[in-house]
Amino acid sequence: MKLNIYKNQNEIEKTYEVDAYDVMYGTVEDVLAVLDELGDKPSNDEIFKALTANRAKLNDLVLDIFPEMDASELRKVKLKEMIPFFLELFKYVKDSFSSSKN
Fewer beta carbons below 10 Å: N end or C end of the chain? Predict the structure, then answer.
């Protein structure tokens, strides 16, 4: 998973990246709460509404995944990159459940 921090509209200031994230149970609870709001095949509008309604939780998750990132940098991430990031995170949590069943 990765997030770009932008200096301006076109220039990336830095990129945070993690290959793996050791999911804590609290994180799973937060992600599942958001997933419950989304349903099976959410539209972009539904995803946006869920992100807005859970902004504080999701910001905390991002800062947990990227501990070297500070909260002020979240304001410099493009929204069009946040939605795929959260979808990847949600998939990662779901896949963690699937792999733990084996």
Answer: C
Global confidence as pTM? 0.71
**% the chain with pLDDT above 70:** 93
Taking only the tens place, the pLDDT of each residue in 68-88 is 999 999 999 998 888 788 788
In angstroms, the CA 101 to CA 96 distance is: 9
CA angle 85, 89, 92 (to 5 degrees): 140
Angle, CA 61 vertex, CA 7 and CA 34 arms, to 5°: 115
Hey, CA dihedral for 79, 85, 91, 92, is it positive or negative?
A: negative
